[in-house]
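[job 4471] stage=fold_predict status=RUNNING
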Amino acid sequence: MRRRAPARGRAAGVVLLVAAAVAALLLWWLQARSGIEGERVQLAAREAAATVTPHTPAAAAAGAASAPPGPPLSALGRAERAEQLELWQARLERARNALDGYRAAAQYPHESRPIEEHPDQVRPFEPIAEERALRMPGGGSAAQGVRLRTTQERVFASGLESNRVTVTLTDETGRVLPLRVTRAVLKEVTPPGQTARTTELALDVNDAGRQGDAAAGDGTFTALMQPGTQGFGSFAGTVRLELYLDFQGQPGFIYFDLVYSPEQAALWLPGVREAAGPGGLDFFVKAQVLMPGRYVVTGRVDDHRGLPLALVQFNGEVGKGDAEFRLPVFGKLIRDRQPEFPLVLRDVEAFLLKRDAFPDRVMLPRLAGVQHRSRSHALASFSAAEWASEERTRHLTEFGKDVAEAEAKVKQLGP
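[job 4471] inference complete, writing structure tokens
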């Protein structure tokens, strides 16, 4: 039974968060354009049909649009004209909605978004919790009326990072049931046809209050996956913890996957710098970059009351040496949300993206908790202007063309 991260990928997800924001806006635009292009075909067919009669050749009908006004339309022609008008009116409404929707969604830049757009990113370092049926090693159900409650701290790890895993068996009322772990094995996930490069390791899983276990005898079994110290220090790929269980003589099975890289991409440096201007408030997180490349850095910003405000990101190429990652809070976002200063930067995570490789990233250590508190700033010192860019202008122009075309057709077909 494969363990998976929840939706939107935990630990920065499998996709870049900034790429997700770009993809969402592009998908919105493409869907709107796709629907409009489909309507063009339908409307063109209806317009052509309206000019063709049983006694009019198709070639003659092709020039009907440019011909001088003819005699009044027949009842059939008026009905077809009304049908076209209705279709164009509906298309106009959709085009206006698409334009207004994109304008509203793109009023803030990709790297500075309202955090309510990403509810799964508000508390990124909370353990991934799941509940599922107890199943046998072959996949069949092992017992009815019982559930496995599991947690794991992360999906991606690098260097000496560890992943704490817990397993608890309960009945349907939540009462903890006796469980035994008969075997626990840490191993690499080897592609078909390849030989494992590492040796399997028998791992200690306990409910004795040691090695990460929170409380002895509470029915929750704990294991620590730390590939860098458990024989996988030179391995890059998926490391799997397989647990063989027993409940009242009935076997059970579950596994946890951890995508691991032994490399160290960068070292965090102390201190966070801030800079404020009409465009917003920028936080600069410092690091010594050991491996140059594209870095993705994500942080959360709360106001002084602890209310989540923004998801802020850096996504760009960085050279080797000391670097600063800019995490911006956009000015209009501050003006719109009216947070109480000082603002707080917390829970920063980062990775080096590796293209065409697996694992596709090298994680930096998590910076959990508060990393910086800003100075106080007057809301009026920030601009209320919407985000401006070539990308946004281009999309607004395309949506505007669709609106103008539909408005012209409605006017032409109207009374």
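[job 4471] summary: The first strand starts at residue 112 and ends at 114.
[job 4471] exit 0
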